[in-house]
Design goal:
The complex is a heterodimer of chains A (about 325) and B (about 250).
Chain A (H helix, E strand, L loop, with lengths): L1 E10 L2 E11 L4 E5 L6 H8 L7 E6 L2 E2 L4 H6 L1 E4 L11 H11 L6 H12 L15 H13 L5 E5 L7 H15 L3 E6 L2 H7 L2 E6 L2 E6 L1 H6 L5 E8 L3 H8 L7 E4 L4 E5 L6 H10 L3 E8 L3 H10 L1 H10 L1
Parallel strand pairs in A: 3-8, 3-9, 6-7, 7-8
Antiparallel strand pairs in A: 1-2, 1-4, 4-5, 9-10, 11-13, 11-14, 12-13
Helix pairs in contact in A: 3-4, 3-5, 4-5, 5-6
Chain B lengths: L3 H21 L1 H26 L7 H14 L1 H4 L1 H9 L2 H6 L4 H22 L2 H9 L4 H27 L4 H22 L7 H10 L1 H11 L4 H28 L1
Helix pairs in contact in B: 1-7, 2-3, 3-9, 7-9, 7-13, 9-10, 9-12, 9-13, 10-11
The chains are: A alpha/beta (about 325), B mainly alpha (about 250).
């Protein structure tokens, strides 16, 4: 449904995205995950026909977003990061306007506006001015305008940003529902969001896709690895790191501000050996516990340790 | 494909919402009030002239209003594109399956519609003349026609000004400036500052007064004059469309 090949965008000399290639099939919810400034919004703006790419191409349902822009745009519902609303219109007028702009005609249009407002639970506020709505309601109205014309592809830029936890859950529920019928490309920097919603994750950093897989596969990359957090009294993290580095089954020891992090991939639990070493040195063992390795770790690893990765590559 | 029917649908869609938006904002009532106030003042002055035996025509009123329009109209147009860009709503317009020109022309038609309402309300003054005197109706009609066309042209200038910036005040001043140039271009040509005959001819051909006098004072509708107004609208709306398009690169 979405095909992206070698998409590149320059802002002056700055390369915002760098030969991105990916695809999203019909009925898939694809998560676009990356830190702020990674190029998520730029990619979405190209896909929605807002701006042309510098190089490469993208198609929506087979229509080139630049060459056949109008046909491509007809098949897209778009919710930009800051929900663009006309505050002087009522909820109903606004959604009706967006539906009409996407080519819907009456009498079907009016019916559909009611239907979609009902779906986002805003029908009772249909005649309220948008300026009087709360942030969560505005987000739901934004979602309503994105789905009102039954687009094949839904592009949502940070749909849950700035919402309270209950509203976040509501919006996610909606996205999940909508995603059963259409292709959804969803950007976020919240990991739990993608792991809950998406069938596939694209991790993007500095304009490049650094990983692409299902949430389960990405998480299993780290299976078999345990991470321990150790806090010790009467010794600095560096001293502790030095003391326990040689213990069998420990791959890596990283001193942190509060203690040390231990990464181990062996079957043998190194915890008893660690505590024995610390007691032997007559330090105080304050805390030792295992930390779950999650998508968060993969994400951080992929998006921050770039130089480290390169060094490792060279070693290999 | 994008058919003519679809273009009408899109123009109507933009027109409808923009027209509605005008009447929820206080500016339109303020501008309308000022407009009718000035119309009334100039009508009173005209009445005094009619009492002294002058021909009862609308020429003086409409000529003066044609000047004032340049200061009033940009207040209506300044918001049209600038505010969309400032609020980010232009992103929806530029990603909807509508062409850029349909957005611009739809907005312009809406504000011209509002001006047409103002002009229709001002018909009470000629109506008064018709009831009390015996004016030349054809002259009155052609005078109003040229005035209406001039309004459309100044509004097109205003839409262009609004598409240049996201600051409404800048749009207001730029709109005023460009239309003043159109109004005053022949002042330059008659100033003997410019020696070239060609440049002087071009300047005076661009000036409003060269094209409104015959319709306003003599009731003659010349296709060249109509072309002048339609041409102004087309040029400024074309430029406004191009400026809206540059948002795709400037983002």
């Amino acid at each position: 449904m979405i095909q992206v090949e070698g998409l590149t965008k320059y802002y002056g000399p700055f390369k915002a995205i760098d030969s991105l290639s990916f695809h999203a099939d019909a009925g898939e919810i694809v998560g676009f995950l990356g830190p702020n400034g990674a190029g998520k919004t730029t990619t979405m703006r190209i896909l929605t026909g807002y701006m042309p790419p510098s190089e490469g191409r993208a198609t929506i349902a087979g229509f080139d977003v630049f060459e056949q822009s109008l046909q491509a745009r007809e098949r897209i519902g778009y919710l930009p990061e800051t929900v663009p609303l006309y505050k002087e219109l009522t909820v109903w007028q606004y959604v009706d306007y967006m539906a009409a702009l996407r080519g819907m005609r009456n009498p079907n249009r009016a019916e559909r506006v009611d239907e979609v407002l009902d779906r986002v639970e805003m029908l009772d506020r249909a005649d309220s001015m948008i300026s009087s709505l709360s942030k969560g309601m505005r987000q739901r109205v934004g979602l309503a305008q994105a789905i009102v014309h039954r687009p094949d592809v839904l592009i949502l830029d940070e749909p849950t940003i700035g919402l309270d936890p209950r509203q976040v859950r509501e919006v996610r529920e909606l996205v999940r529902e909508v995603g059963q019928e259409r292709t959804v490309l969803l950007s976020t920097h919240i990991l739990s969001e993608v792991s809950q919603l998406c069938s596939r994750i694209l991790i993007i950093n500095k304009g490049q896709i650094v990983a692409e897989d299902s949430p389960a596969t990405l998480a299993s990359r780290l299976q078999g690895t345990t991470r321990l957090s150790v806090r010790v009294g009467k010794a600095t993290p560096k001293e502790v790191a030095k003391a326990i580095r040689g213990i069998e089954g420990i791959d890596e020891v990283i001193p942190t501000d509060e203690g040390v992090e231990v990464i181990s991939s062996s079957q043998a639990d190194p915890r008893s050996a660690i505590s024995a070493t610390i007691v032997q040195k007559s330090w105080e063992l304050l805390e030792i516990h295992s930390v779950d390795m999650s998508l968060e770790d993969i994400f951080l690893q992929l998006t921050t340790d770039e130089t480290m990765d390169e060094e490792e590559d060279q070693d290999a | 494909m994008h058919s003519v029917g679809r273009s009408f649908h899109n123009l109507w869609t933009v027109f409808r919402v923009e027209f509605t938006l005008f009447f929820v904002s206080p500016i339109v009532y303020f501008v309308g009030g000022v407009w009718l106030l000035f119309f009334g003042v100039f009508f009173l002055i005209s009445l005094a002239a009619f009492n002294q035996g002058y021909e009862p025509t609308m020429a003086y009123m409409l000529n003066t209003m044609a000047f004032l329009v340049m200061f009033i109209v940009p207040a209506l147009t300044m918001r049209l594109v600038a505010e969309e860009v400032r609020q980010g709503t232009h992103e929806l317009l530029l990603t909807a399956p509508v062409r850029d020109w349909e957005v611009i022309v739809g907005k312009w038609l809406a504000v011209w519609g509002v001006m047409t309402v103002f002009i229709l309300v001002s018909f009470v003054y000629p109506l008064f003349l018709i009831l009390r005197g015996n004016p030349d109706l054809g002259l009155m009609a052609s005078g109003y026609l040229v005035f209406w066309l001039w309004n459309g042209a100044v509004l097109a200038v205003g839409v262009l000004a609004s598409s240049l910036t996201q600051y409404q005040l800048v749009a207001f001043i730029v709109g005023e400036g460009i239309s003043l140039l159109l109004f005053l271009a022949n002042a330059l040509s008659s100033s003997s500052l410019i020696k070239s005959e060609l440049v002087n001819n071009v300047l005076s051909a661009l000036t409003l007064s060269s094209h409104q006098t015959s319709m306003l004072d003599r009731g003659l509708i010349d296709p060249v004059d109509i072309t002048y107004f339609v041409g102004l609208m087309a040029v400024f709306l074309f430029l406004a469309t191009q400026m809206l398009g540059t948002r795709r690169w400037r983002a």
